[in-house]
Amino acid sequence: MNMKWQQLIIDVLERILQELETALDGLTIDDLNQQLRPDCNSIGWLTWHLTRVQDKAAANLLGEDQLWIKDNYYAKFNRTPNPEDTGIGDTLEDVVAFRSPESKALLEYYRAVLQQSKHYITTKLSETELNREFDNPFYPTITNVRTLLMRLINDNMQHLGQVNYMRGMLKGWGWLGR
């Protein structure tokens, strides 16, 4: 089988969805907002954040509006239509104040962002595009599309791992059912 490298990126992002579906299954609003310590993120915040970062990146790469604003996801999260509201730079007070919607809304938003990301990858992402350079003053090490995508996947996978860890801490042994 000859798989294009773009499909590998799509497969990783789809796997994140599969893992989120498993991790969020059956969680209550209280579970989603539970902080294991007063200075830790919640499962709901982590899921929202990893999706927001991907939404912002995909929209910027496509030259389109973020789904957060365009499709009014901000309203489903009881937040403002601020395109910079991604969780990056949130204070502890911001994290504590975050109130997650139900798992269904978290997953609906991720699925929509995944479709947007897949659209970018299948229609725009070439080797030339991968090497397109840009200036990112907030992250000086992100200098081109390649480093942005690597950072995005790394960030999403780390936060997914945190979500799974917290789910295990909340529900104990055997929640994964594998």
Describe the overall structure.
The protein has 178 residues and is mostly helical. It has one domain (5-171): Up-down Bundle (Four Helix Bundle (Hemerythrin (Met), subunit A)). Helices cover 62% and strands 0% of the residues. The protein is built from nine helices and no strands. It has helices at 5-24, 29-33, 43-62, 67-70, 73-76, 92-97, 103-123, 127-130, 145-171. It is globular, with a radius of gyration of 16 Å.
Roughly how much helix do the residues carry, as a percent range? 55-70%
CATH topology: Four Helix Bundle (Hemerythrin (Met), subunit A)
What is the global morphology?
globular
Distance between the termini: 28 Å
> Could you name the CATH class?
Mainly Alpha
Order of helices and strands: HHHHHHHHH
- Strands, count: 0
Mean pLDDT: 94
Beta fraction: under 5%
Structural class call reads: mainly alpha
Q: What ranges have pLDDT less than 50 throughout 5 or more consecutive residues?
A: none
Please supply descriptive tags for the structure shown above.
178 residues, mainly alpha, Four Helix Bundle (Hemerythrin (Met), subunit A), 9 helices, 0% strand
Gist?
With 178 residues, this protein is mainly alpha-helical. The chain has helices at 5-24, 29-33, 43-62, 67-70, 73-76, 92-97, 103-123, 127-130, 145-171.
